[in-house]
Amino acid sequence: xxxxxxxxxxxxxxxxxxxxxxxxxxxxxxxxxxxxxxxxxxxxxxxxxxxxxxxxxxxxxxxxxxxxxxxxxxxxxxxxxxxxxxxxxxxxxxxxxxxxxxxxxxxxxxxxxxxxxxxxxxxxxxxxxxxxxxxxxxxxxxxxxxxxxxxxxxxxxxxxxxxxxxxxxxxxxxxxxxxxxxxxxxxxxxxxxxxxxxxxxxxxxxxxxxxxxxxxxxxxxxxxxxxxxxxxxxxxxxxxxxxxxxxxxxxxxxxxxxxxxxxxxxxxxxxxxxxxxxxxxxxxxxxxxxxxxxxxxxxxxxxxxxxxxxxxxxxxxxxxxxxxxxxxxxxxxxxxxxxxxxxxxxxxxxxxxx
Amino acid sequence: xxxxxxxxxxxxxxxxxxxxxxxxxxxxxxxxxxxxxxxxxxxxxxxxxxxxxxxxxxxxxxxxxxxxxxxxxxxxxxxxxxxxxxxxxxxxxxxxxxxxxxxxxxxxxxxxxxxxxxxxxxxxxxxxxxxxxxxxxxxxxxxxxxxxxxxxxxxxxxxxxxxxxxxxxxxxxxxxxxxxxxxxxxxxxxxxxxxxxxxxxxxxxxxxxxxxxxxxxxxxxxxxxxxxxxxxxxxxxxxxxxxxxxxxxxxxxxxxxxxxxxxxxxxxxxxxxxxxxxxxxxxxxxxxxxxxxxxxxxxxxxxxxxxxxxxxxxxxxxxxxxxxxxxxxxxxxxxxxxxxxxxxxxxxxxxxxx
Lengths: 354, 354
Prior knowledge:
2 copies of one chain form a homodimer. The first copy, chain A, is of the alpha+beta class and 354 residues long. Chain A is 27% helix and 27% strand. In chain A, helix 1 (20-31) crosses helix 11 (290-298), helix 2 (62-70) crosses helix 3 and helix 4 (100-107) crosses helix 5.
């Protein structure tokens, strides 16, 4: 299990999670001549349309997981809310990348912030507590505006609340009640950027150029590369991301989100232990995209350089916007195969060369 | 059935043939949010690994074809040796692109040559006959060297024999016996090039830059773009290809192979009514590659411009060479999922940016 050598062509890549990221990982694995097995409780998970091997069980079903792990050659996951126990069950049988330490660190905002703090990596000031009442005790140390977040299961702006006064924290109690929370200083940033980095099992690192990201209501709307930042800042972002993946002995692709403050300071906002929405531009801007890169890394294949050949604008496609895509000829279109295009749901993305 | 409008996302694309071309078509269809259904008698056909809908029946099984056609929204094919009757059965139920006339024209060398001749499109001089004996009658009109080919089912140099004297034709009788054959003048060309062209159902045409192709033993080994030809020759190739797809009311991607003679004359060598090996470079050199382009065309979606952003070298990977790919980091790798890597078999390809 701890041998470090490339998986042969035809090996089976197990993917926990069958959403769009699992789907695009599966497609890239197929391109490399691997087979894929999608594990997701939802029988209609989009990734199951692009392979003929799949399982429909709960992530806590130990027997199903053991069976899954016994029938694949390596396992990865598409999202950070997989229970750590799921990974622990699987890794007794086969390799799982990224490792469980990386997953545990990134799936809890409080653990993540403490990890960054211990590494001397700049991020926003914060206090964290096991319960809401404890937060109230320590809040006097920070001036509003603040942002209150659940430690786990937040995504796309969900599980967050901006706080302008101590009274507002108190009144938020009912929303957050007994969940572990983290209270962070709200950063008045001028830009959000992210770096998609990959570390392979031999320790080699490759980074894609940082992108400039634009959000609406906490959801990524578009990413642009190159980002409108000085070269020195791009280098700093890459160095910070490298320090993070090295410390975690991380294998695979990670997304590292940063705030660029008004003083041109970089603060790490969030780590995503997986391929990342802000890296979808690599499908049209690089010879080897983030999905192929991730599959190469977890399979022990040499990873690509990350070099970019084109400038790209990536735009997410939400809800009913998907219907307009059939008129689109100037972008490469990726649609995720979701059957319900409810408002605000990410249905696909478009890449334009700019 | 004759309505010309874009298929909605989630529609099912039926693909006749489950080899590598069907596999890469299926992957591109998935990327566009379509589902795919692979029809191939071989239950282990490579394309069946990348979708969860497939059928294992003979191409002449009328009931199975009718059932298939009833369960998909449009049908295409990955190779020209599909019987025309297969298409005729399917098109009674749903749209099939390219049309049966294009298939019939291109699947028989004699029909193809006559079509080109009637269109005043230059190709090598030829005689054709229903049987070998008839060829012998007319051979005196052409000086050797000649090339004798079966009219159907030839590919990758199979079903061909170079003839240096009339005696050699006579002695080839046993090899070709009663098969319809065509005898062509062997062209002493300086370069082989090809053009990948696409025509959509509304009549719009887009062309990828011509590539320069290198063969060994009749099998494509590598394609390079841009081709080392004058701009005027590239334009001529594009104009000829456009004339061909317009005449056939072709819908989808076609590969047109040319010889460039020592006098810089262009002769059409062969038409392939499908995505083409010499167009695999588009996966790394264009925003919308030949597979996405074909799926867009047959689905009534607007096709891409064909614009190239990079110079590319595409190399085919044969037989056991596939094992060395796990050491490859400077090219994007495509492997076809075939289980038997016997000598000389096309197992995958690599794209390098040059």
